[in-house]
Design a protein that fits this description.
mainly alpha, 412 residues
Amino acid sequence: MLEVVPRRLRELAQRRHQPVVVQTVRSAAAATIAYATAVWLLSAQPPPLLAPLTALLVVQVTLYATLTSGIRRVNAVVAGVLIAVAFSEMVGLSWWSLGLLIISALVLGHLVRAGEFVPEVAISAMLVLGVSHSTDLALSRVLETLVGAVVGLLFNTVFVPPVWVETAGDSIEDLARRMRTLMLDLADQVGGRIPVEQAAARLHTARRLDHDVVQVDASLARAEESLRFNPRVKEALLSRIVLRTGLDTLEICAVVLRVATRTLTDLAKHRTDEDLFPPEIATALRELLMHTAGAVESFAVLITTQVSRNAEEAETFLLTELSASRASRDHLARLLLEAVREDPRQWQLHGALLAEVDRMLDELDVEKRSLRLAEELDRYSRERRGRRLLSDGRLRRLRRVRRRPRVRRPNR
């Protein structure tokens, strides 16, 4: 028992920086402050529970989400409160009034342009109707909602949410480590006879990488939002582009790795009674997979490293692994060519395997990565310049319209 408790405490301590834990603490703190503020300002009876409810809805995991979606969320909550107060004054709570309330709230949500928070208009209306149908303090309910909204917005403005770049970087590195582990497992299997079931298991593992990429993409999207409008962050644009382009590269490598495992599975199906590759080819392929696995991991470290010295070390290691991978690839290509000349069975699978390795090494190339970063920065600059020109053009047209003299029509 004494061993289990410290272990649980260590796990909780390790999770204290996770977004779910941080958001839980922040939401609870904002709701508590909103409740205390409402009690102090309004002195309402019964307790002003709508203030902490609204604060819970407003406080977001990033400052950008608070400023963009928080306003629409407040709009939805206030609209729901108003329509619920009107229903409680006129008809009260019954089965038919509840259905009519939901329909009216959803329609009102579209009218006030609540966007993706239209359902929250109906949710807020139902909650308020259930709480306030026995009281006539309609104005106090609206004020409670406004207090909760203001407290929620000020809370995320004063106590700026964390920057989730480090969490996204950890997710990217974890994805690269899983890809590296899979490639090392493949390297251990290429020698000798491989059962089809074992090769198929590796194929299923490669397919699960797609789900991992989706999770990393969600983590990166949260990190990108945390960089926007955050006064503590410098060079936010560069950080977003570095992480996003790096994840795109790893996603392509994951797809190529899945195709490579499919190729090895097909070879295992055709060669059930013999070794998958001759010993010399198996050794060369094992060496190639090991170097490529190291390149994938070092690439992830490179794109997630913030300190320049560590970044230089990661780039040096990446260049070393890529150079060794290309040398191993050329050696393997010569061996496969000689083997195909002697025995042309499944020659197309040999060529496909080499093509897949070439694609992965090309995606991890340092020069290609630098070129892609430059292209993304140029594209963003062009888009920003285009939006500025469009905004200036609209402003000039608006000024011309305002300066046009009014034509007086003659009285008839």
